[in-house]
Amino acid sequence: MSDDRPTENPPAVLETGVITELAPGVRRLIAPNAGMMTGPGTNTYLLGVDEVAVVDPGPAIDEHVERIQEVAGGHIAWILVTHTHPDHSPAAAKLASATGAELLGHAAPNGRHQDQTFEPDRIPWDGDVFEAAEFSLQIVHTPGHASNHLCYLHTELNWLFTGDHIINGSTVVIDPPDGNMGDYLRSLDRLREIDIDIIAPGHGDLIRKPRAVIDWHIEHRLEREAKVVAALKDSPDSTSRELVEQVYADVDEKFHELAEHSLLAHLIYLEEECRATMLRGRWRLS
Predict the structure, then answer these.
(1) Each residue of 118-146: b (16+ CB within 10 Å) or e?
(2) Domains of the chain, with CATH numbers?
(3) pLDDT in tens, 136-186
């Protein structure tokens, strides 16, 4: 397996506040929340022309909520969220209040880093098809990064709106207890079975080689899992904090605190597979 990502076209310049037409009836607006975890900012997608569906309205920043309404053109009839992390869904309540739009998605699970203000009017389930006059979206439940994570497949274009399940330019943190590495890998496997022409991620530019990128994500996680197993062989009865320096030796130390979350997700997955055990906070192979 290789650490090299599949080669994509040169990255576009992604500017906040600029509406970009990506395809007929598909536009992108980037929220002004650039940062270490969000890259250039959260991608908000506007689907349709006369009646508009907003996918991931982003953080509750008044400037962004106002800009969504300004550039929408048609009536904003629906707001769909991929999951309830604070950079994706908090603007939904404000935007719905201003437009009367229907909210679709799954309510926030209990736990940290969840937007408890999101209260859906309609809960779409895996396999459901959301029908609008100008387009339709098939619902794909993809737990892993978040237990309530949904992807939306634009059935006319074969574009998949992936939120944080797959982003461009980085891997995502899997943060237990809501994040689950086993679920994440199974969700990636499932996406390999779907006919996808383009991935429209929650952060970064369009991904035009979806199968290669999905395969890379699977391989990357399995490579990291192998490093976890090797570290447990070398240093049994270690804490996750002790293991992170070995498993993520290739990652800048300033990211090790974040990396420890995904490391713990790997350890829990190995435990679920009966390949590792934990006693009083220390891990060893079974």
Answers:
(1) bebeeebeeebebebeebebbbbbbbbbb
(2) 20-209 (3.60.15.10), 220-285 (1.10.10.10)
(3) 999 999 999 999 999 999 999 999 999 999 999 889 999 999 999 999 999
Burial of 106 (0-12, 13-18, 19+ CB in 10 A): buried
